[in-house]
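Regression test case RT-17, inverse folding.

Input:
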């Protein structure tokens, strides 16, 4: 018997865009020590940010420090409602942060897929972003980055857009 395919990573992947919008999804790894869910989520964000930095974005990073630490990412986790997270995920998947007039994909389609991603995590999922009402806490050492991440306590879904001028 074949194991059922986890639809979450497949669906989330449809929101990615080469060298701009990146995604990650799966089971949360237990966080080292205390810190609970936010620490575990921050570590997943950090793992993807480090992978992106080492694989490509180190060429465009300012300074020599590299991406911020998982603990700094944890401090930049601003809670979002399900509705806010869905809209933000759709926005990040569909419009370039540097050139918003450049469509990466249709906004309505991106928001619809984002709503399906959120639905797979369920109504009890918690959502965060490094964007709040006043600005963005950068995590990549590039000029532009914004992420949205959600978790039901066992699984997570993460989308980040990175850009540089």
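Golden output:
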């Amino acid at each position: 018997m074949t194991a059922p395919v986890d639809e979450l990573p497949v669906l989330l992947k449809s929101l990615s865009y080469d060298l701009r919008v990146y995604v990650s999804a799966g089971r949360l790894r237990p966080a080292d020590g205390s810190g609970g869910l936010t620490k575990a989520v921050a570590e997943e964000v950090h793992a993807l940010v480090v992978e992106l930095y080492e694989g490509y974005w180190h060429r465009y990073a300012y300074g020599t420090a590299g991406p911020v630490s998982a603990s700094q990412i944890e401090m930049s986790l601003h809670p979002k409602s399900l509705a806010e997270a869905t809209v933000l995920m759709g926005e990040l998947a569909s419009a370039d942060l540097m050139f918003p007039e450049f469509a990466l994909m249709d906004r309505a389609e991106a928001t619809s897929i984002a709503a399906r991603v959120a639905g797979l995590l369920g109504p009890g999922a918690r959502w965060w972003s490094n964007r709040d009402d006043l600005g963005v806490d950068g995590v990549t050492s590039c000029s532009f980055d914004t992420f949205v991440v959600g978790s039901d306590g066992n699984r997570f879904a993460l989308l980040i857009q990175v850009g540089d001028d």
